[in-house]
Amino acid sequence: MARYIGKEMSRVEGIAKVTGRAKYAAEFRVPNLAYGFIVSSSIAKGTIKSIDTREAERAPGVIRVFTHLNAPKFRNDPQDRSFRALQSDRIYFNMQPVALVVAETYEQARYASRLVKVDYNAEKHQTDTEALLASARDPSHGRGTRVRGNPEVALREAPVKVEAEYRIPIEHHNPMEPHAAIAFWEGDRLTIFDKTQGVYEVRRHLASSFGIPEEDVTVISPFVGGAFGSALRPNYYPTLTAMAARELKRPVKIVYTRTQMFAGHGYRPYTIQRVALGADRSGKLTAIIHEAVHNTSSFEEFDDNTTGFARQVYACPNLRASLKIVSTDLHTPTWMRAPGAVSGMFALESAMDELAYALKIDPLQLRLINYAETDPESGKPWSSKALRECYLLGAKKFGWEKRKFEPRSMRDGEWLIGWGMATGVWGAFQAPAAARITLRADGTAHVVSATSDIGPGTYTAMTIIAAEFLGLKPEQIKFELGDTRFPRAPLEGGSMTTASVGSAVHGAAMAIVARLLDLANRNEDSPLKGAAASDVELLDGRLQLKSDPSRYVDAFDLMKRHNLNEITETFEARPSREREDYAMLAHGAQFVEVKVHSELGIVRVTRIVEVTACGRIVNPKTAHSQEIGGVVWGIGMALQEATEVDHRYGRIVNPNLQHYHVPVNADVLEVETIFVEEDDKIVNPLGVKGMGELGMVGIPAAIANAVFHATGKRIRELPITPDKLL
Length: 726
Prior knowledge:
Blueprint: H1 14-19, E1 34-40, E2 46-52, H2 54-58, E3 62-67, E4 90-91, E5 97-103, H3 106-113, E6 117-122, E7 145-148, H4 151-157, E8 160-168, E9 180-186, E10 189-194, H5 199-210, E11 217-220, H6 236-248, E12 252-255, H7 261-264, E13 271-279, E14 285-297, E15 319-328, H8 341-359, H9 363-369, H10 387-398, E16 411-412, E17 415-427, E18 433-440, E19 445-448, H11 458-470, E20 477-480, H12 497-520, E21 536-539, E22 542-545, E23 552-554, H13 555-561, E24 566-573, E25 585-597, E26 603-613, H14 620-639, E27 645-646, E28 651-652, E29 670-675, H15 694-697, H16 699-711, H17 722-725
Parallel strand pairs: 1-12, 10-11, 14-15, 19-20, 26-29
Antiparallel strand pairs: 1-5, 2-4, 2-6, 3-5, 7-15, 8-13, 9-10, 9-12, 13-14, 16-17, 17-25, 18-19, 18-24, 21-22, 22-23, 25-26, 27-28
């Protein structure tokens, strides 16, 4: 029986965060620090005709002003097409960096940045995805269209069909911590503190940009104040920071302003989807056609696999799922929490609700009718799937049986009540990852891996896993992350960190156990003689037989007898060959109550029940927090979030937290999150699946479906604002 896995535990770094001891990228103390401030373009496309930096250079405290005219050129890397600033006079998007002012203080740099004068040769730009649909094309890597069966014929012959278009605006990550970096050089060696979800990715990016060996770059990122995709790719500021530091031969810090964050990393792309569903009169799906188009930039391709997960949700013999992209004069989009999945499932799950009403079948019943017992895409069995249990438990907790079918049939005075539901789905990913454990003879352990913790509780989860398999108390474990001097780990994205890095920590702990057993069995009268490593376990300093705990040796005495102060093992965990024989997904069901004011069109999400099946839960406390966070983000996506672009100028008009609306405490009422645990021995040694993305996947669709039930109005364009309901 597990001692720590599955038990609630507070964050091991929690006190450090709330007392200010935790250091974020911009907070490291480095002597002789200079401050950089980015000057942004005011056009969306064209070239710089002239740039006058003389007044800025004369301003108090200014050390240097970098532009495309005096900044060194970075090396081109064919594998890395990401934007690098100050490399030419070409303008690709509005608010693109055109200069970097470096001064003795932040205030001096910011003031001088306003003195830089830029004249442009503006060219005709296009930032409106709707106007560019005729130029939509398949992504070059070939993930565009997937077909099974004959969906067009099946749709034409279906006795019941629905077809609709759904739209999602550009949305921006708005993490609490602005992106920032501090860089300094010691000879040819670069050290940089950066806000990132992957220190090794930043290291590779910087090494290729400067043409130096990766081993000469150290990237440090112990704490990240929220990211969820905005720090997955190396953004343009780390190269700027490192370039300025090298040229000035002193440390330099750059921190984005809140406004600069709207052009300083990616965003969820503007997405248009068409969904057509065909079914027989019993509700059985006979055809699914799901087409998506979203924007990318003019200089780089990005696609978020919008229709990918939707192919695996329902049993349907005929399906066509396609994704096309169009080039716009905007910065490149990027992954944003539940990328592709939440967008694709908003359209599919809204369409399923429309089909339920066309058939006059309860929306939950329609999903149960089309439940996929095996993966409809590959035909493989699921490694585990408890979605049916999620549906039934969620319906019971929510009181779904009391729902009246007809729209506008439930009221509370002036408020129309609506109940909606949807399905969530996400991949059960695992990537190669390594961890190093040092077990000390004093009964403590040091565990390291170059992963990240953007907030989901990686520090705590890895401490729990290490404590579980080393047989120590959590307070005897010190886990560190976010440093390229530690063993390589994948990006913290895709909800795969616990599966990947957790498996590495487990493997390193098992390697420690094997080392101790080898030491024990060098003694002829060892009580563990003949035992294999899989037969023994560490518990409270005792290396003991699982089947007979009375047969044991004291692990720390054993180390001392062999003059070992510590034992160190590094382990790389990789996805198993067995995974290839199964389909692996995490699933969830969302039930939502909304109240819509009958006169004003105001929507309040009053109650949500979310039930999730994602394997084994390592720490229920932070897991529930993750799911609640996903729900809150889903509320924002459904009702509030939209990046507004004035297409006349190709410029974002709400790049701040005053005008870009996100949910606040008053928007979040009753949220209940429940887990249905799965015993999955295939997915990875710990049996865990990711949940960070999954928590929001079905929420926008469930809210939209609830709004329809309340009002009888089907809103197919997010966000659902009062004007659309009046």
